[in-house]
Amino acid sequence: MAIRTSFVLALSLICAFFFLPDGARGGEFRVTPIRLVFDARTKTGVITVTNEAEEKLQCQVKAFEWTQDAGGKDVYEETQDLIFFPKIMTVDPKSERVIRAGIKVPAVAREKTYRLFIEEIPEPKKAQGTAIAVAIRFGVPIFSQPVKEEARGVVERCDLAKGVVTVGLKNTGNVHLVINTVKLVGRDQKGGQTLAKDLSGWYLLNGASRTYSAPLARDACIRTATLDVEIVTDKINLKHKLNTDASMCK
Description:
- This protein has helices at 5-10, 12-15, 218-223; strands at 16-19, 29-32, 36-38, 44-51, 57-68, 74-78, 82-85, 88-91, 95-103, 112-120, 135-144, 154-161, 164-170, 177-187, 193-200, 203-204, 209-215, 226-233, 237-243.
- It has 250 residues and is mostly beta strands.
- The chain folds into 2 domains: 5-144, Immunoglobulin-like; 154-249, Immunoglobulins (Immunoglobulin-like, Sandwich), CATH 2.60.40.10.
- Strands 1, 3, 5, 6, 8, 10 and 11 form a 7-stranded mixed sheet that branches.
- A hairpin with a 2-residue loop joins β12 and β13 (164-170).
- The chain is elongated and about 65 Å long.
- The termini are far apart.
């Protein structure tokens, strides 16, 4: 798989961070693969950076430990757990270079999670008129798997108040989950469907929690007697049923 920079720009909240330095133009490059997984047999990997532009691409590479806070927000802290080379590189036009990465101490009981950030270093140029430069910083997820993988999760909270449904999910296993979608299906007292809504997800690291909220259309909410919630992940699915009444929609 490859993520081209145009796609990265479109999904900036998902997989990239952007900087706007003066007097430089953002490059055009792609990174493959989009993640690395280390286990007992695989302790090293290779990331390929392909420069699709007509100019040289300069990049710097940094390693961060990746955790999530109490609200499920991503937190990054520089780490020495990863070995990688090079740390600064130049990629010729229409060429590619590889970054070799490895883990110093493999995970044992719980998965360790990191991101290897590949950040473009724009070359200074004389700007003609008003110019906006975009430099791309792409973080490749790196997962160091435990000896025994245990994928588990629990719905900590599910309620409806003032027409807004809130679902709280906690990853109680020792590996990350990719939340593909949170499905909401409402039904009336006769079992007829009153509403259907899908909420997009994101990575949920081991031990972390995240809350999903969504407003419901008032008429559909009032007619709803039960709300079925299904969390679809890459490893497990979780289900929960909530009994509702019209007072929860006001």
